[in-house]
Amino acid sequence: MNDVRKSVEALFLETSVAKMRQSVGKIVICLGKLTPDQVWSRGAEHENAPGNLVLHLAGNIRQWIVSGLGGVADTRERDVEFETTGGIETPQLISLIAGTIEEAITVIESLDTERLTRIHTIQNRTPSGVEAVYQVVEHLGQHTGQIIYATKQMAAQDLDLTMPRRR
Fold first, then answer.
1. Sequence-ordered list of residues with C-beta below 8 angstroms from that of 151, at least 6 positions apart, any chain
2. CA 85 → CA 42, 70, 72, distances in Å?
3. Three-state helix/strand/coil letters over 25-73
4. Helix (H) or strand (E) holding 109
5. H or E stretch at 12
6. Quick check: pTM over 0.85?
7. What is d(CA 58, CA 140) in angstroms, rounded to the nearest whole number?
8. Hey, where are the domains in the chain?
9. Cα atoms in the 13 Å half-sphere on the side-chain side of 118
10. Which of 59, 77, 30, 56 is nearest to 143 (CA)?
């Protein structure tokens, strides 16, 4: 029974890491198809630009995984993630999100049963380690989809991010 739990634990961690790498790859492709103005373009005041979503994801991932599970000080300024309207170039955004995800992956790959099952305090919530990883992977996937959708609209093209289709 213990061996089965270890294999399920390993599968959960490996799958989480793979999904995070898959998402960041899609984000990098999207950012590369946008002009600097499009990266910071909002359809309306209440919407977020792809650049804001990247800042938000980096802040969230750092807060939940690097800080929440990894023990690094939480220095997140969430409002800045949404208030920013430019001034950060695409290569910097790519470096930020890719670097943050790699930091988080280092923490995730180091998690053991005790840290996965322990209750943590993150954003005034009390998730287990499993919940924290799951929240980040799900949140990353949701915003990656928004970045993809915005990029398709602004670039006016299919991004070929899935299996090839007949055209």
1. 30, 31, 33, 34, 50, 159
2. 9, 30, 28
3. HHHHHHHHHCCHHHHCCCCCCCCCCHHHHHHHHHHHHHHHHHHCCCCCC
4. helix 90-110
5. helix 2-33
6. yes
7. 9
8. 2-155
9. 11
10. 56
Say which CATH class 2-155 falls into: mainly alpha
CB 125 within 8 A of CB 90: no
Count of C-beta atoms within a 10 Å radius of residue 38: 19
Helix, strand, or coil (residue 138): helix
Structure token pair of residue 56 = 């938000």
Q: What band does 162 get if pLDDT is binned at 50, 70 and 90?
A: confident
The identity of residue 96, as a single letter, is L
Q: b/e string for 147-159 if b means 16 or more Cβ within 10 A?
A: bbebbeebeeeee
CB 129 within 8 A of CB 115: yes
pLDDT digits (tens, 9 = 90+) for 107-138: 999 999 999 999 999 999 999 999 999 999 99
Residue 91's identity, in one-letter code, is: P
Paired tokens of 32: 């590369």
Alpha carbon distance 78, 93 (integer Å): 16
